[in-house]
């Protein structure tokens, strides 16, 4: 019995030593990256107003209702400001047509304020459907194959290299997942202030640019999921494509690191890319 216990203890430490020898770190790096890409894609296809996020959206709705009291007051203030600005402008005449246009703008703004929160989940659903179309039903094609055992055999200082590669992979994957989660939080941050921002539309002119800017920002956050989905969908094939034709395992490992870093940074810059490409 003592021999069996000793064998178990020594076997445990031998297995632990094999793990820290480096080979398993290489293998775990590939699994960790694929799992985090799958996690990021799962979060992207969640509706921020339904399912697991339903309770959070109810809290956002409560805050929105509270701020709507302020928004209605601001709606009247901005309408009066726009009316006084146009009526006191010496360079233009306040014609009947312009007056009708002001009241039409007031009616449209009032309806936008009352329906803004109820329409947001529909926009989320559109973004979710488009994201699912990009990612596809089966996410296996986004998995990249990494032969950790082969790399381990071809690197002389594989033990330290494997640990560094594992840590770098986890950090890059963590940045991707964090950016995806941060996108949802950004939506929650601006959603309650929809009424306050959109009330400026009643004033027209330069003041209404606040409302237009809010609309562009909201849609930018919602549909930035499409850009992130594209990056995740091509991440596997992008990493597997070897650009540097060499048998040096260390150089290829460096290429893997560079490509994972590029993927992480591309996901992180999705908001700015969306703004530049679509003016959102």
Task: Please describe what this structure looks like.
The protein has helices at residues 2-19, 23-44, 54-87, 96-135, 148-153, 158-190, 194-198, 209-240, 249-268, 270-278. The protein has 280 residues and is mostly helical. It is elongated, with a radius of gyration of 27 Å.
Shape type? elongated
Number of strands: 0
Query: How far from one another are the termini?
Result: 71 Å
Beta-strand percent range: under 5%
Q: What is the average per-residue confidence, as pLDDT, rounded to a whole number?
A: 78
What's the tally of helices? Answer: 10
Biggest sheet: strands, sense, closure?
A: none
User: Roughly how many Å is the radius of gyration?
Assistant: 27 Å
Helix content: over 70%
Structural class: mainly alpha
Series of secondary-structure elements, N-terminal to C-terminal: HHHHHHHHHH
Name the poorly predicted regions. Answer: 5-17
Short description:
This protein is mainly alpha-helical and 280 residues long. It has helices spanning 2-19, 23-44, 54-87, 96-135, 148-153, 158-190, 194-198, 209-240, 249-268, 270-278.
